[in-house]
Amino acid sequence: MAIEKILKDDASEEKGERARMASFVGAIAITDLVKTTLGPKGMDKILQSTGRGHEVTVTNDGATILKSLHIDNPAAKVLIDISKVQDDEVGDGTTSVVVLAGELLREAEKLVAAKIHPMTIISGYRMAAECARNALLQRVVDNKENAEKFKSDLMKIARTTLSSKILSQDKEHFAQLAVDAVMRLKGSTNLEAIQIIKKPGGSLKDSFLDEGFILDKKIGLGQPKRIENAKILVANTAMDTDKVKIYGARVRVDSMSKVAEIEGAEKEKMREKVKKIIAHGINCFVNRQLIYNFPEELFADAGILAIEHADFDGIERLALVTGGEIASTFDNPESVKLGHCKLIEEIMIGEDKLIHFSGVEMGQACTVVLRGASHHVLDEAERSLHDALCVLSQTVNDTRVLLGGGWPEMVMAEEVDELARKTPGKKSHAIEAFSRALIAIPTIIADNAGLDSADLVAQLRAEHHKEGCNAGIDVISGSVGDMAELGISESFKVKQAVLLSATEAAEMILRVDEIITCAPRKREDRM
């Protein structure tokens, strides 16, 4: 009994087999959860929060689903982490990464049961991953020299990414939107410059891309509705000090007239400030904070358009786009960089009025306006479009492209199998297991489409034994199809990230042989 008392009362530990069991079970459960969202015929999940308001999210994005789960199992947390990283790094392939890692663990479980040491499995997986990556590298297509071809590659990638999302019905339209937006960025992966505004109403088809910048604000009263050749000062400063704020201030005065004097002084200060701002020679002033009626009046008299309360990312982006800087002091006008644009006007979208800045300095900026039936649809559309934009901007930098539809997995699996045959020792079992895990991805894509996966994957395998074959699963017709003809492509960067992250995550979970859960701190110990 004495040995047991090393850990505190409530702490528990799982050793060896049981710990590994717990990890495997947790990871495989997570995999089975997101597995059904994979591929063009993948289904969506509804996530309902238990907090106030019972918010409902309908999504197909692996990272979004996993982010919203609260999970106790340590292995499952590792999988959630890799999907988050995949989301931040390349934006798409969040489901694939989890599925691949889960399948690797499922295979590893069988190997461990067959008395193969986890370290052996890990080194086998390492070799296999390296081999798979090289197999892909030999088959990549790179069209960066030929602008026309590259653009069609981008369109294909966008279509492929969108086809597993809610936008699949209008994927032509949205693929065009996404490609135009990304081509504008001219190779920077900074998606800040692409602004997405969601307005309920209309249908998804009514979404459009607008060059220029749209600020979700109304133009104040008595101010010019339209300004040409605008000079814009973007500021973050308090413009609400023309009245004495009584709350929280203690001012002792002898009479009411003194209060009036103080108010007068405050008002003068304000007027000075406005004069300084006008001295910059601007005709549009955007402020992040409130603007009271008095300064607003002064601006209107000077014929300056004053916009208050522009939200923070709106302001940062506006400064970025118009080529100005955010100012907070106005004493020396020569040091402040002003923003410029050709035209500011009010536009209507649905029944909302918005301010539209067109002809901006930075040609890279644009705004995508999404329309849709409800907030849920819009949120999901935004996530899908964001995925597409991420993948495209990554592809513009790293122009290598692969075919999609389970083709890369089959290519990798075949090469990995070859390696397994050449490798002596127990490692070869692990390498073979790796290839089985890779084949699981096309299998799941076929299963989700309700096709006979065993038959299709066997056909695929036979096809891939021929040289230079482009076969993949054509979900729409339910057979093996030529991916090059169907125009199904994926970005090499995404595939590589999926492969490497999944292998590393599986490795990490395999290394575990003990799980120690700490006892919660007792409250009274704190004193």
TrEMBL record:
Gene3D superfamilies: GroEL, GroEL-like equatorial domain, TCP-1-like chaperonin intermediate domain. Coiled coil: none annotated. It is found in: Cytoplasm. Pfam families: Cpn60_TCP1. CDD domains: TCP1_beta (cd03336). Its main location: cytoplasm. It comes from the Eukaryota. Keywords: ATP-binding, Chaperone, Cytoplasm, Nucleotide-binding. GO terms for molecular function: ATP binding; ATP hydrolysis activity; ATP-dependent protein folding chaperone; unfolded protein binding. InterPro entries: Chap_CCT_beta, Chaperone_TCP-1, Chaperonin_TCP-1_CS, Cpn60/GroEL/TCP-1, GroEL-like_apical_dom_sf, GROEL-like_equatorial_sf, TCP-1-like_intermed_sf, TCP-1_chaperonin. Signal peptide: none annotated. One of its GO terms (cellular component) is chaperonin-containing T-complex. PROSITE patterns: TCP1_1, TCP1_2, TCP1_3. NCBIfam families: chap_CCT_beta, thermosome_beta. Molecular chaperone; assists the folding of proteins upon ATP hydrolysis. Known to play a role, in vitro, in the folding of actin and tubulin. Belongs to the TCP-1 chaperonin family. This is CCT-beta.
